[in-house]
């Protein structure tokens, strides 16, 4: 089975503008598709460091003296690069979201297609999982999760129904969760709504928005001037953070202007937003929501 079909492979790696002897980071190693493409463009003195917190990804490690795979969350990119005596790099690539492998392994609980445990952890080492979110969170927190991360207008009602159902019995797996929420899943759009519900839970379990913010801020610190950041996102919450940092150097508000009304920002955006073409979507349907943004540090 294909572990993960790399999305926008050539476009995202082209965006790094690779130097033969440069130092690069792939923060979402997965099946190693993007990493292999980066290594194919590096010379003998080039270096590639990859991150993946999912233990399953370690089986895909690449036997290459120029390559190091770090089994950690990329929110710690600066710390773990320092442990490898790397203080600055020439390019960073991130392919956000869930890998095909994670979707296809039923017991991980990521997919709406299979019955599985309420898990959804990117790393099996962490304590918080989907079961604890669904069965332990109070009503206000459940409402926040579905509203902020699923962008579901009926989040208050969804939260209340879950609270009422679990008072009778804990909700133990994804199938039970679907049964509890069936009134919100009309046949003509059940898949779309269920995907929003799963997305909300998954983001909360893995603290994905906080992780992304920490990663983007550290990327700005460790990139060399002229270094590139190439990021593929899959939903508007991620893309908004990436776009704002690349455009303004911050997630909220506008950069301060000088006396003449000019402002300096740390990144220069490279090209326009890139999305998969018809052919890529036809081959890999999961790429349909992908958005690639590229920026260069000034």
General description of the model:
It is a single chain. This protein has a seven-stranded mixed β-sheet, sandwiched between helices. The protein has twelve helices and seven strands. Helix 6 (139-148) packs across helix 7, helix 6 (139-148) crosses helix 9 and helix 10 (208-222) packs parallel to helix 11. The protein has helices spanning 9-14, 33-41, 77-83, 100-104, 130-136, 139-148, 155-168, 174-180, 190-206, 208-222, 236-248, 278-283, and strands at residues 23-26, 47-51, 67-70, 89-95, 223-233, 267-269, 291-297. The termini are far apart. The chain has 298 residues and is an alpha/beta fold. Strand 1 (23-26), helix 2 and strand 2 form a beta-alpha-beta unit. It is 39% helix and 14% strand.
Total DSSP helices: 12
Largest sheet: 7 strands, mixed
Average of the residue pLDDT scores: 93
Describe the global form.
globular
Tally of DSSP β-strands? 7
Distance between the termini: 42 Å
Proportion of residues in β-strands: 5-15%
Read across the widest sheet, the strand sequence of neighbours is 3-2-1-4-5-7-6
Rg is 20 Å
The percentage helix is 25-40%
**What is the ordering of alpha helices and beta strands?**
HEHEEHEHHHHHHHEHEHE
The parts where pLDDT drops under 50 for at least 5 residues are: none
Based on secondary structure, the structural category is: alpha/beta
Question: Helices, strands, pairings?
Answer:
Elements: H1 9-14, E1 23-26, H2 33-41, E2 47-51, E3 67-70, H3 77-83, E4 89-95, H4 100-104, H5 130-136, H6 139-148, H7 155-168, H8 174-180, H9 190-206, H10 208-222, E5 223-233, H11 236-248, E6 267-269, H12 278-283, E7 291-297
Parallel strand pairs: 1-2, 1-4, 2-3, 4-5
Antiparallel strand pairs: 5-7, 6-7
